[in-house]
Amino acid sequence: MLLGTNLLMAQTAAAGAAQEEAPKVDWTGVAYYVAIFFLICLGIAIVGKILKIYDLTLKMQGKKGIKWNNIMAVICIIFLLAGLYGSYWSFTEQGSMTLPEAASAHGVKIDEMFTVTTVLTMIVFFVTQILLFTFLFRYRHSDKRRAHFLPHNNTIEKVWTIAPAIVLTILVVFGFFTWQKIMNSENLKDDINIDVTGHQFAWELRYPGKDGVLGPKDFRLVTGANNLGVNFKKKSSFDDLKVDTMYLPVNKSIRLNILAQDVIHSVYMPHFRVQLNAVPGLPTFFKFTPTITTAQMRTKLDDPKFEYTLYCNKICGGSHYNMQKVVRVVTEAEYQSWLSRQKPYLNDALRKELHFAAANSEQSGASTNRIALNN
Amino acid sequence: MSTLAVHDHAGTHHDEHGHEHHHDQSFLSKYVFSMDHKMIAKQFLITGITMAVIAMILSILFRIQLAYPDKTFPLLTTLLGRFAPNGRISPDFYLALVTIHGTIMVFFVLTAGLSGTFANLLIPLQVGARDMASPFMNMLSYWFFFLASVIMLSSFFVQKGPASGGWTIYPPLSALPKAMPGSGEGMTLWLISMVLFVASSLMGGINYVSTVLNMRTKGMDLWKMPLTIWALFLTAILGILAFPVLVAGVVLLIFDRSVGTSFYLSDIVLNGVQQPFEGGSPILFQHLFWFLGHPEVYIVIMPAMGISSEIMSVNSRKPIFGYHAMVYSLIGITVLSFIVWGHHMFVTGMNPFLGGVFMITTLIIAVPSAVKTFNWLATLWRGNIRFTPAMLFAIGMVSFFISGGLTGIFLGNAALDINLHDTYFVVAHFHLVMGSAAIFGMLAGVYHWFPKMFGRMMDEKLGYLHFWLTFICAYLVFFPMHFMGLDGVPRRYYAFTEFASMQKWLTINTFVTWAAIIAALTQFGFLYNFFVSIFKGQKATQNPWESNTLEWTTPVEHLHGNWPGEIPTVYRWPYDYSKPGAEEDYIPQTVPYSQTMSSNQPHDFEDNPAGLEELNKFTSTLKANEQVK
């Protein structure tokens, strides 16, 4: 973390130095673009003048001049058709670039809600936009007729107040129960607790050891070696593991315990439909069950490099755009073998700091190296 | 120059009156420290347009970064200096651009620029008043706004750059000067600017409300007011009730920053150093901020709704459909907007039960919005539509409101918001529903009331070009963003280069940037049209759009006090367009029913039995005459 800031400062310093020998501005290029802009303006002005002269000649011949109302009405229809095609194209082309199916149990429910909402709203979208632009074309101005004097119609107004009210009630009820189910999940005994702590600009992961319980944290205890401020007066802290990549066993209930140290961050794992802010001073949690392993997703997407990711989704400073962790969903066996290879949070440096007897010092060399690498 | 003095001369002849008041007005009191609502409206408008152009340029700068994250543009270094070293905008300055773009657009353009311009211009003119209730406070309102704008822009000239924690300035990021460069002096200036801004907004709002309530002309009861006035009136009430809460939030933030209190801060370790804050809650700030923040989006959109309703009625030559429903839906939106703020906070760690409640209130507010949309469509149905530029922009507003409003149903749903929160889906949603829609409402207003403001007409053809290019480009910019959001692309990311999954969006980003550049260049056409027409536009007639409302009964030449003689009396609602039996297809509000016997309807006399009897007598004689023939 500290190194990160140093690096940033180094960058600014380097930038400052480089500024003196900054690359030269290609003024001809700039002038070229400005000239193009003025040429376009000139073109528009000329077209405008031509239209004006044409309009005047029409009027001199005793005709009505350019019928702008008709021209606008026709453009409205063209816009409608082009817009319909454009949104269809956008839905198919860019719609296919969106997230794959939910990789978590609750995510499937969210996706169902999403589909229902999309269908309902898109019907309204297409119907209203089509009505809007066809009305514009159909009822364009004509000197020969008058508009239909219709100040109100209570029946139809009641209909279109109650109809959206009913549709929205349905959406609210479904949404409310889905939301409650996702957020009010009970804590189970075999939940896998994972501690996710955000700071500028990285995530720290901690897994509980054999006891399955994460040791408590206190920001007052934060030191260089104990950067999460784990409280080692509690026994549950001793077997906690410090982890680099988030491994999750498939089909197991996961409980992310979320906290931030400096500013608000947000734990965002879009493939699992998981998001919750990490707030300093306010521990939060999010429970979910991953259902598709990374390997399965790779075959599904036909992308051998695919990785689930966890990234920051709340503005947190200059490097907000690069604050990520790889998440791997694996089988239970793979998970256990991975877990057994993880190093304890309580490493030698921390032991020294806490004046613990160096009883289990076998791992010393390896773990200090890891810390250095992590930072 | 008090309104009272003008009242005294109410009976005198026009020329005399004008003469008497022109010679004692210096340049300073006429154009600078003016207390005339029409001049203050113009001041608000031109300051608003200036701020909008600045915010637009900021947006183009960060769009260039998003489209070409790996390219260098030496010109940027020349223009921005240390903020763009080596021809690339720095990550911190990128966030500053995003922050100030949002702040300027939401507050300085779409709140002050929109409400300030049209409430000042239209309230006295459309309700029939000589000026605002307190012209002096009105002047102060503008100058506080001006000062706030200058301070906000001055933050570009401090060493570490402007505030950059997003326009929502969530603490701790905004509270800790060491958390990012923009949280230093830049943030201090932001906070000072906002306090002044809120003072301006309150002085304006109190004026608007008291003018509407107390200074309506004879006959102008609340149910005869045009929808513009209803919208501006309710907007002012919203502002008066919501803005003080922002000040409260901002003041506590200033304390946390400067005095060492812990209202929003607790358990913080910054760069490995424990901070002496305990017991505060960052969520508290979010509650205070969004208690203003959500009504704020309605403060932005309601004037646009009112303006569009009025313009669509005038140019469809048809009464607005369901006038009462339109007013009640505005009132409904006003009330509901105070109890939906939590939908911005579903995933902040707020109690999930609260999230559920806010979701219910949020989706209820969609009902009045839907009613308004359907009523606009019904207004166009079987109309006789004239495509003035103002009309086109009003239609554009409706189209954007539909497109952007529908995605609100996704975001208001807490379960769906889990994955959509803070992604480009949100960006697309609010840029359509309150950004583009409100801007289009504002432009519609500018085109429509330009003759009233400057006595000249704007060029229609240039207006057409302006509309179509802006309309198309706005859709091209914001439509694809929905899909980026559905792919989990977060907003406020400096570059998408660090994620393999996001790199596929780079081509879309380039496309969006070019659409934005074209839209921005198009605005120069508008600026040219606007400023040239002020001096060289075709002279306007008194009622160029053949409209019913009171402002078109004032003379083209402005005078302090608005009407040369007595203020006209109002006899009817403002939407008698294309009434069967009437000679013209419009009947101004000042025409009494006694002059329009042939077009009167029983409905016109619902609470006027004497009038109804007259009408019955008239129709029976008419029938008798026909039988004689």
Describe, in plain words, how this protein is organized in 3D.
In chain A, 47% of the residues lie in helices and 15% in strands. Chain A has 375 residues and is α+β, with helices and mostly antiparallel strands. In chain A, strand 6 (265-269) and strand 7 (274-278) form a beta hairpin. Chain A is elongated. Chain A starts with a helix and ends with a helix. Mean pLDDT of chain A is 87; it is low at 1-20 and 359-375. Chain B has 629 residues and is mainly α. Chain B is 63% helix and 1% strand. Chain B is built from 19 helices and two strands. Chain B has a two-stranded antiparallel sheet. The N and C termini of chain B lie far apart (61 Å). The chains are: A alpha+beta (375), B mainly alpha (629). Chains A and B meet through helix 1, helix 2, helix 3, helix 4 and helix 5 of A and helix 5, helix 6, strand 1, helix 10 and helix 11 of B.
